[in-house]
Amino acid sequence: MLDLSYDLPKVKTIAGAKHDWELVIGMEVHAQVSSNSKLFSGASTLFGAEANSNVAFVDAGMPGMLPVINEFCVEQAVRTGLGLKAQINLTSAFDRKNYFYPDLPQGYQISQLYHPIVGEGEVLVEMGAGSAKEAPTARLVRIERIHLEQDAGKSIHDMDPAMSFVDLNRTGVALMEIVSRPDIRGPEEAAAYLGKLRQILRYLGTCDGNMQSGSMRADVNVSICLPGAYEKYQETQDFSHLGTRCEIKNMNSMRFIQAAIEVEARRQIAIVEAGGSVEQETRLYDPDKNETRSMRSKEEAHDYRYFPDPDLLPLEIEQSWVDAIEASLPELPDAKKARFMSDFGLSDYDASVLTAETADAVYFEAVAEAAGDGKLAANWVINELFGRLKKDDAGIADSPVSPAQLAGIIALIKADEISGKIAKDLFEIVYTEGGDPAEIVAARGMKQVTDTGAIEQAVDDIIAANPAQVEKAQQNPKLAGWFVGQVMKATGGKANPAVVNQIVAKKLAG
Amino acid sequence: MSIDIETARKVAKLARIAVPEERLPALAGEFNAILGFIEQLNEVDVEGVEPMVSVTPMRLPRRVDVVTDGSQQEAVLANAPDAREGFFAVPKVVE
Question: What EC number(s) does this enzyme carry (chain B) (predicted)?
């Protein structure tokens, strides 16, 4: 369903002392699997619970405790892989990644280094569809793999000057690590990639995508290269054409990710242009200083001594099970957007806005079908409803206007029962007071006046009361608009503007 | 494969085991003896033999996604050298 007719987005370049530099970015996104219990224990995954209350002895690394895999977490990883059009590995295995940290009581993280559950896939990242004016561009970012692993606990450093406080509630919660190829070419693309991934995961229901609570976090690999070098890499898949990369760890803000990439690229350019060479290392972004700095203390600990986890047999799944999961996949963003464009005649921009979230798309589709007009429905949902909800800081789920009510308003416009201006008033009434749009229009006398007699009377009154304006308008027909405005005012906006225009023109001429 | 004193020191550090400097040569020697013993396995021809992961023909046991554990803060913290307000309290570790 991929629409590859998009042009490629422009590669981000940064001007150096002698020439431009290009950026090459790969991302490792950690997405928390939506599940009730943890990957290898029966403790709850609920966020925000009292410290250490969602902890099983397995999570606390107590001696003799054995991990038992949560089948639903496996299903969620498979579903995610299918959603990213990826290869599903029917046999995968778990390895231990060994390191010491207070929030990792086992002394190792159970992960999948050698045999991940999901192989190569892809994500179509659209750019520029964020505004109605720009022509959309898109890049197909390749996914290298997705593996299942345990999350670590949480350390809190600011509760005591001399101590760190450790909460193991998050320890052992299932994560999917989604690893991209270095196909991302700028800070904005990196943010758009993360946004698209988040959208797909939310459609699939495999991750809630809540970045603030840490459900999605990204490690970003950044390197720089000369123009032309990246194309050589793509031809040969030989990394020697690219610069040495640095990994910026653990970011959960789109804004900071973009800032970090930019500042890290500039740091690398300065090093190379001064004749030095970039050292491959792990860095942290400091948003207060807008700089990245080395996590040197982590370097030695990076000898993780991976080995197959002897507590866990290989994970074998059946093709029939994978097929059943595939059959249950919802319509995904790319397909939904393409369908909205072809079935309802929507623009790329409108279709993007309306498919951002499943709930938005479902709402729009209900309105469009009931009103029998996709374009009008799109205008009303995007401009009026979303605008009004935003004012209240509310989401579509909180909308006091149901799709049937909104379709009712649109039906009244289409039937010429109410004018566009009155429709907006009507919308506000339905939004704040509720009720059936047609009944409100009847009860409150909001019906559009198309009765030419009544309109003629109103026009005559205005003309009679404003002889000076009439004279000016007769010399300059552009001033007729003033009369139209006065008539609309006098009729409380209920007069049909087209009819008013016509009558005003005729009377002024006449 | 041969383990020198430097490697022995690194392995000890990664395992967070304090090994006095004078014990390192002996430790490296022990590592070498163990690795030498295991290296004998390389003499066996396993070409085309599927790796054995278990001695019993067992499928990885699975669990359904329900909450069956937790809500035992006191028990979880029982062995902690220091615990405050429901947290493990450890010497400050900050990057």
Answer: 6.3.5.-
